[in-house]
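HOLO CASE FILE
Compound: flavin-adenine dinucleotide
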Amino acid sequence: MKFLVCVKQVVDTSKMEVDPVTGRLKRNNANSILNPLDRNALEAAFALREKVGGSVTVITMGPPQAGAVLKEAVSMGADEVYLATDRAFGGADTLATSYTLAKVIEKLGHFDLIFCGQESIDSNTAQIGPEIAATLGISDVSGATDISFEKEGFITVHRPLRENVEVLDLKLPAVITCTADLNKPRYPSLKGILKKNEVEIHNITSADVDVDPGRIGMKGSPTQVRQVRPIVPPKKENLRIEDKTAEEAADGLFEAMKKLNLM
Ligand SMILES: Cc1cc2nc3c(=O)[nH]c(=O)nc-3n(C[C@H](O)[C@H](O)[C@H](O)COP(=O)(O)OP(=O)(O)OC[C@H]3O[C@@H](n4cnc5c(N)ncnc54)[C@H](O)[C@@H]3O)c2cc1C
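Model generated. Tokens follow.
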């Protein structure tokens, strides 16, 4: 079977900085990591490959330095990696990103299962997986916590709802977005670490894929992030009631709570 995993290089939100002038996220190599849920997506593909055989192809769309997350995928066990990189792809919103990724997937051939993380940690729209499926015209499910092959031509996926678990049979090919509850991602192997130093990252530009130039990059993006700014927490004032009798203190507290609309 042919498995494909989409991975994203994200800003490590624990080290996230916003440029005070442009209001944009500062992206550099020091604070860029593989999106955490994409490790679960990779693990899901590797585990199925071990069960039924086949190959795992990994793709990302991003600037040349995004190749680092592809190398990490190789160290975990990916067979082949592709980087969709082109100035024309820059400034893409989720619609343009998923369109480009879907076109890259079409170019690479037929895949039985496509895995994504449920959401990224730096933009977390959770739109990319379902939008890839919609563009390719195939089935999809978001937030998988269990995956198995139980029926010929289908994949069985468990997805928790508020108080129940939904068990779905998805006709193949399909897109599945993965949660942290799905599995425990493996560590890179020694063989993988050696392979990542030699692996060829296949670059794909807009000239290599059959894309409508009006649907990629900033031109193809109806949504644009104008600014990202930190949330300033509301200032908290402390109230201290001292040197009062118990009754006076209780009255003072009651009045203060009334002022705050807590009574
Ligand atoms: C703070 C911020 C907020 C944003 N908000 C919006 C918004 O509201 N609407 C909008 O249209 N755009 C938004 N964008 C732009 C957004 O970053 C891109 O569209 C991005 O490519 C995908 O969005 P996401 O990370 O939210 O994807 P999600 O749908 O949250 O990502 C889910 C999964 O999709 C896959 N994936 C996502 N991006 C890629 C990629 N480039 N290559 C390969 N696989 C990928 C990964 O498996 C990932 O785990 C925002 C950007 C920033 C920095």
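CASE NOTES: The chain has two domains: 2-215, 233-263. The chain has a mean pLDDT of 93.
CLOSED: yes
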